[in-house]
Specification:
Layout: E1 43-48, H1 63-71, E2 83-85, E3 90-92, E4 98-103, H2 111-127, E5 131-136, H3 142-147, E6 154-159, H4 178-184, E7 188-196, H5 203-211, E8 215-218, H6 219-225, E9 237-244, H7 266-279, E10 280-288, H8 300-317
Parallel strand pairs: 1-4, 1-5, 5-10, 6-7, 6-9, 7-8, 9-10
Antiparallel strand pairs: 2-3
Helix pairs in contact: 1-8, 7-8
This protein binds manganese (II) ion.
């Protein structure tokens, strides 16, 4: 059993591990270089290919690899001013140093060990003064990631169809429980749940988390009030954003285990994260619940997830 943090990336005697076109070379996130701890980075990508917390259709262990593959669509060599955002009419992520640390070295049926490593990987990235950008994995991994932020007293923002505060199983560590874990271990100074909808939330748990002070904004409220800044203002402070891909409408993100109609779309998400970044400082985030086994060869969910990671990086760093 290894518990070291070596990411095991190969070094090639031939050339850089990536070519000039999106379909060439070894896929790192958007073609960014492998992370070397001694190099200063603004943000570091880390994959957590773990899905033993799922309560329905598993397969999100394949999420990090699929998101990296899709993200290579955005990998063009030699682009110094990294991406031109035509919607916002500006360059984004210019001059920002971003690197990919690879995946947490998961072992089967070793939850405690795996999650200890997830927290340590997160702490290692934070100790290097970089923002951890996490690719899931199922939503259970958010709790050990957020544990790495314990000293930062973050505001936690949960973008999801579900409130994820199940307290029904003997193991309360499923992908339906991270919000309950974060609350009960007092890991966040505030909880905001956005995009909640549909028939698969427990009314009792939703009422419970609101009683504990969580702010809940349903998908319907978001559809109506997204551009009303007063209705959706965020105070100053450090923010951790957890994006469950089922926040989006299933027509935009079919590759996920628990789809629910009535979801949001990318422009809503973009407005929302930039809204948070207006006053708040995004210090870490995850994108979870992408299940490539459920989306066929189109990979639109993985492409959406990759784009969301870039949007979150831009909101955090630009
Ligand atoms: Mn979730």
């Amino acid at each position: 059993m290894t518990e070291d943090l070596d990411n095991g990336f190969p070094s090639s005697p031939f050339s850089a591990p990536k070519g000039t076109l999106p379909f060439t070379g070894i896929a790192t996130f958007a073609g960014y270089p492998f992370w070397k701890k001694e190099q200063r980075s603004d943000a570091v990508i880390m994959g957590v290919p773990y899905d033993e917390g799922t309560t329905y259709r598993s397969g999100t262990r394949l999420g990090p690899r699929s998101i990296r593959n899709a993200s290579m669509f955005y990998a063009y060599e030699g682009a110094k001013d990294r991406f031109f955002d035509a919607d916002r009419n500006q360059w984004i992520l210019s001059g920002k140093t971003i690197a990919d640390a690879g995946d947490v070295n998961i072992e089967p049926l070793s939850r405690e060990r795996n999650w200890r490593l997830v927290t340590r990987y997160g702490e290692t990235i934070l100790d290097a003064h970089a923002i951890p950008a996490v690719l899931g994995g199922d939503h259970s991994i958010t709790y050990p990631v957020v544990k790495a932020f314990e000293k930062k007293r973050i505001h936690y923002v949960h973008l999801d169809t579900h409130a994820d505060c199940d307290r029904i199983f003997e193991s309360d560590y499923t992908h339906g429980s991270p919000v309950a874990r974060i609350f009960e271990e007092n890991l966040a100074r505030s909880l905001t749940l956005i995009g909640i909808r549909g028939l698969t939330n427990s009314g009792r748990d939703l009422a419970w988390i609101q009683k504990q002070g969580a702010r809940v904004i349903t998908a319907c409220q978001l559809h109506r009030h997204l551009r009303d800044h007063q209705a959706l203002s965020f105070e100053e402070g450090s923010y951790y954003i957890s994006l469950d891909i089922d926040f989006f409408d299933p027509s935009a993100a079919p590759g996920t285990g628990t789809p629910e109609p009535g979801g949001l779309f990318f422009p809503d998400f973009s407005d929302l994260v930039h809204n948070i970044a207006e006053k708040g400082k995004i210090v870490g985030f995850d994108v979870v619940e992408v299940n490539p086994l459920l989306e066929g060869h189109h990979a639109i969910t993985s492409h959406l997830a990759a784009r969301c990671v870039l949007e979150l990086l831009s909101a955090a760093l630009d």
